[in-house]
Amino acid sequence: MYTTELQKVDPQQAPTREPQELVDAFEARVADDAFIEPKDWMPEAYRRTLIRQISQHAHSEIVGMLPEGNWITRAPSLKRKAILLAKVQDEGGHGLYLYSAAETLGASREEMIDALHSGKAKYSTIFNYPTLTWADIGAIGWLVDGAAIMNQVPLQRTSYGPYARAMVRVCKEESFHQRQGYDALLVMAAGTDEQKAMVQDAIDRWWWPAIMMFGPSDDNSPNSAQSIRWRIKRETNDELRQKFIDATVPQVHLLGMEVPDPDLKWNEERGHYDYGAIDWEEFYAVVRGEGPTAKERMEARRKAWDDGAWVREAADAHEARRRIKAAA
Ligand code: FAQ
């Protein structure tokens, strides 16, 4: 989703001038499940694909702080507020690990942030939906972090070392996020009729956007085949989507709620749930930046960046003085 001209790349069009012996050695290491490290030789298309995916992932974490951050001042108890604060801070930390991982590939932080702010780079569709009630905060933790974990657990074995290692800690933290979200909904689902209705309404609004988070179907996923071959992606979009649905449907039922999909049905033969048609028009519209809160999200990010300019300037000035002193 990181689509600056510099980084947009068709992996099929990898430069042909790359020395064959280096390409062969790289392919052999990947096939052997060895990690590729920043100083190792790698094909240019591999490097660019990683920058695209990792920077998109980082932007998603940072923009993903906004829908929940919106509820910190309105959490229903001190305990819920402390949990939510910790969770939102964790997401900020994930963004920072990921930006650092992308920097090891030669992308600068300024370049990545600039691409986000100018609209050239994208972030996960899920964060362009509004958080209308407290139940939405539970639904994000449970469904959105749940989908993120399903996608990120295999990324702990992605072929690029710094990305894989960042994912280990990220997954541990996401797992706490998911549990706190489900716990908040369990409490509400055992509450008043009004609370139960809020839980169902949140599931109705977040279910399909969470299913869409996994990206286009495998038939329409231009990057998957090459990314699977390079072991950047370890499972396809549809495989992960199916796993998520199979794991999550029983959790919806445990809450005493309904899945908003009339076509959902356990398929004994496949050993999986069959599910209804995904509204791909909605997905692509949100990818294009037409989501319900897309404008608001970008305004908030640009303002945060501008408001933080003095911190960056102070850090630069401090570093300049430290160098002068060290040189003296
Ligand atoms: N939204 O060919 P593919 C989180 C784009 S973290 C927007 O399948 P690929 C934590 C895709 O970039 C959530 N665009 O692409 C949290 C490509 O466009 P491009 C983020 C999407 O890369 C929780 C085009 O469609 N997680 O939630 C989306 O092989 C709570 C074709 O797609 C990650 O980023 C989408 N959902 O597979 C934080 C995980 N899906 O760039 C706060 C790492 C696809 O060619 C609160 N990323 N597109 O112009 C990945 O695993 C992959 O990049 C995929 C997409 C699976 C997202």
TrEMBL record:
GO molecular function, one term: phenylacetyl-CoA 1,2-epoxidase activity
Cellular component terms per the entry's GO annotation: cytosol
Biological process, per Gene Ontology: phenylacetate catabolic process
Name of one Pfam family that matches: PaaA_PaaC
Protein name: Phenylacetate-CoA oxygenase subunit PaaA
Species whose genome carries this gene: Sphingosinicella microcystinivorans
Gene that this sequence comes from: paaA
